[in-house]
Structures are given as C-alpha cells and as structure tokens.
Write a structure and sequence with these properties.
By secondary structure, the chain is an alpha/beta fold. 36% of the residues lie in helices and 18% in strands. Helix 8 crosses helix 9.
Amino acid sequence: MTGVDPVQKAEALLGPRPHAVVIGAGLGGLASAMRLGAKGYRVTVLDRLDSPGGRGSAITQGGHRFDLGPTIVTVPQLFEDLWAACGKRFEEAVDLRALDPYYEIRWPDGSNFTVRQDEAAMLAEVERLSPDDVKGYIVFLRDSERRYHVGFEDLGRRPMHRVGDLLKALPKFVLLRADRSIATHAAGCVKDARLRMALSFHPLFIGGNPFSVTSIYALVSHLEKAFGVHYAMGGVEAIAKAMADVITDQGGLIRQKSEVDEIRITDGRARGVTLTSGEMIDADITVSNADAGHTYDRLLRNHKRRRWTAPRLKRTRWSMGLFVWYFGTKGTRDKWQDVGHHTILNGPRYQGLLQDIFQKGKLSEDMSLYIHRPTVTDPSAAPEGDDTFYALSPVPHLGHDNPVDWARMGEVYRQKVQAVLERDVLPGLGAHLTEQLVFTPETFRDRYLSPHGAGFSIEPRILQSAYFRPHNVSEEAEGLFLVGAGTHPGAGLPGVIGSAEVLDQLVPHAKMAGQE
C-alpha cells in the first residue's frame, strides 16, 4: 500500500474510524474539529454560512476586507498548543504581529491613556493621568496576576461540570473576593474615574457588564501584560482558514451552507443530526458550536430537557447586543495619523450608559465606541492608499421589553455614529466614505442564530460562569458536547479556543472497528 494516505491505510486495516459531527464552523467548532481529528475521529463540520470562521470570518467589498468579529489575539500560546496537538506549528500557518501600543483610550475631556506591554511605560502613563494612583495601579496589576492563575490557568483550562469542581474552586473565589464586580475592584485600587474605567472595561469584549461580572476578569490586564496583544495578518479570517486547512489535511470534511435543524436523540444518546434539507447524518459523538441557547431551545426542541429548559433559558441573562458599522475610506492612509489600530472612544457616561444597555434595554443618545483600523498594521485590508475601519457600539439585545426596531433605527444610529467619529476622531470622514456594511443585533440573530441577537451569548456573571454555565459535556444527552462562547470557559478568542481544549479532556481517543 505504498503511497496510500496513512488514514486510508489504517482504515483499510482496522475498519472505519468513529465519526464526530461538529455543528458550526466558528473558531470553537474548528478548534474542536482539529482536536477530534488528532484523536483519530473522522470529522464532519457543518455550517450554515458560506465560509469558515463564524463571527471570525470576513466580508470583502470593493477591495475592503471587513473583519466581522474578533480583532485581537491575546494568548497566542493557546493556538500554538492547538496546532502542536495536531503535529503542526502555528507560526508556520499564521503571521501573527505583536502590537505596540495595544490601544488608546480617549475621554470627552480630551484626555487619553495609551496601553502598552512595557511596565515602565504604563507606570508613566498612570502617573501622567493620575499621579496619586500609581501605587494602587501596581496593587491592581499584582491582583490581576493572582486572578489569572486561578481564573485562567486553573479553572479556565479544565472541565467544570461536576459539583466537586465548584466546591474546590469556592475557597479561591472567596479569597479573591470574586463576589465583587471588576468595577468595584478597580475602584478599590484607584481613585481617578478614567483610570477605573481603563482597568475595568475589558469584560465588554466578552459581553459582560463591568459593574456585574466578577472581579476574576481583572486577569485580562495580566494577559495583556504577560503575553501581549497581537493581530493576525489577513485578519482572524486567516486563522479560521488555517484551521480549516488542518482539518482537511486530517481527512476531515467541512460542509458550508449546511444548516443543522435538529440533534437526533435515541435512548438518551445523541446519534447525529438532521439538516434543514432533511438529510440525516449519523455520528458517534456530536459537538455543538452553535450558541448554547440555540442548541438547547432549537436543536433539542423535541427532546425533554432536565436543566436547560425553556423557562431556564428565559431567566438567563444574555450579553449586550452590538451595532457595528464597517466602512472603507478613499485616500486616507496618510490622514488621521493619531488614530491607531485600536481606539476606544468613551462617551460622557460609563456606569449610566451600561445601565441603559444591560438593565433598561434602552438605546441611549450618547455612546462609547471601539474603533478598529486594521490598515495601520495590515495594508492588505484595503486598496492601496485607502483605509478599512469598523466602529462598534454596545447596545441592548433584543430580549428586553420594547426592543429596538433596527429596521427603522439602523440608519439613524449609523448617522449618529458617523457624527461622533467626525467630531472626535476622524474629521471630514463623510467626504472619504466608500464601501459600507452595518450589523445590528438583528443581524446577529439572523446570521449567527444568537438568542436575542446577543453579541457574546450568555453574560459572564458569577452565577453564569464555570459550573453555572452550560457544561461542555451535556447533561441532557450522552455523546453530546458543547463548545464556544455560551459554554465554559466563555466568550472571546481565549474562551472559545479554550473550550476545545476542555473538550479534548472529555472525549476519549477514537478506536477503530478492529481495535479492542
């Protein structure tokens, strides 16, 4: 059998490999497929979109590549470990560039705060902004490192589906005052309101209200300091495509434009899926990278559920929605030189705006924006001499009373976003606009099947995290596993890639028919 593919040779000798079906080609699903392929499974990935990556995919219009979702890579070793598990090297597949500075935060009073990796530079920034808070900032950094070791390296990289896992974690949570919000924790370290915001806003990148989520999320400050902030040349889409290449090299199959309608359960065990076309695909194990809410409320609608019932999901607190305006500009590569790769533009309110978004479900007149300008680092994102941007505004999800009618308000709100950008950071923007694309919570609902159009699935409050989040190994059916933003450890690139790492600890190596 010289020249025969090793996988085909093994199957010829030992029989077919067990089949794993992965629902969704988001980054969590692709990472899971890679790990399952490395364990010997024959893997089929099913996705309703036309290209891999899910929220990490891209749309190109008029030469402008719009990176639709995540833009920052903060823990590159997670990707390195993932590729190593498949016998490959991440750095040979993806060109990852370290950014310096990471991002700039701006306030309405004209002040700013530039975040970098170098600790001396950061201390100088704190002293410039608020000299009396230097000591408190150092305390915050030391605390963030302790929270990193507990929240990320310990709890975040292992299964949390047993009560015993929770009981073991409780003493550490008590010691670190995990009951306090990250905003409260930051306020206990520094006095300046701007600095409190700069140290506590990070949960917004994974869908959490800083005034509600646990102080454990202060660990993000340590992640940034220890491992840097990076950008993948070609956008996160380039990572997704490289992941897809690994899967196909393993003999796996990725089927785009194939939507799963139901997970089939027989005798309490997942046996595969049925597509919206009516096609049935059998599987030995089924992994859902679909939103956890969609998985339980839609894909298991004909199966009696014990924990994640419709009333339970109705009581669940979901992350905020997102309004994202993607736009291209003509002849601006040398304009707006003070606007870097990542800029966070604060509105006049911090806590009040978040209350409107998370609690009141109200679309406010004021806004805070995250501005992504990838062409600063990656000129390939736009035609020569031009720029590509996106401006992201946190907004209420669609599950509140009297939700926003985005069909009516979308263009109105886009114009408000443009006015803020022209006034504060990109003067003359309107004269340079070319390609445009708008995503609202309704887009997230319809494109990604996200409950209530939430941007990051279930909000990471303390009683919706770790053990209290939908488990990676489903308690509703044997042979069913969950990965992605709505399960443990949570949203964001580290979270969804980490969920596949947890899955790897739960699923045994595949055994072919001829093996004992």
